[in-house]
């Protein structure tokens, strides 16, 4: 009996050790609904359970058995690529925040909401029948390149250590953050079926698609909000090629897709570049 118990425990200890030894970056698919933090905690819980940890608590900050974080928060209403850092790979997540990202956004003309997306309350309605495809394409030119953008009030940005979105939900009065420089590398109109329009967006760090759609609605002498948002690329990770869906949240799949992280003598973590396509 003792031998059988020992044989059962050994693979579990080995799996946990292998999981804790991971260093690098990989991408997962975040579905619409949960927050990015909720998705990350679910991922950690699934991996820890697979490794044999009973009743794991991924939300517990102290004495974490698995060091993991995400780079680039997706709104709860958004879906798509979420880059995850594990072990020393968490040191590279700031690069993900600043790096290039691609989105597909569906906007709805004629209605503005308090949080600038479909989960918010409608605060303004305006006519949109005058807007043509050419009008949108013309206005998009002003939102391409290096531009100034005011972040939305409902955001992950903080004031006095608390997120603006949390302060607003608590009933506190929150002032808008000042406009800040952001970069839009590419911005095109993919489809126009009034009141809906679909944008392809490639942008740099700190850019808010919700603010873009809200500003575009105003520029068109109407109003608009984001109805659907999908992040299709973040850094070198794409939705189609790299993002692990929930059924793939296993140690085996993570090991296959992990971009390993090496740690030079100076202690700065570096992700080795993927091999060039042939």
Please give a quick description of this structure:
By secondary structure, the protein is of the alpha+beta class. It has 7 helices and 15 strands.
Task: Characterise this structure.
- Helices cover 26% and strands 31% of the residues.
- The chain is α+β, with helices and mostly antiparallel strands and 278 residues long.
- Strands 1, 2, 3, 4, 7, 10, 11, 12, 13, 14 and 15 form an 11-stranded mixed β-sheet that branches. A two-stranded antiparallel sheet has the order 5-6. Strands 8-9 form a two-stranded antiparallel sheet.
- Strand 2 and strand 3 (79-86) form a beta hairpin.
- The protein is elongated.
- The protein starts with a helix and ends in a 7-residue tail after the last strand.
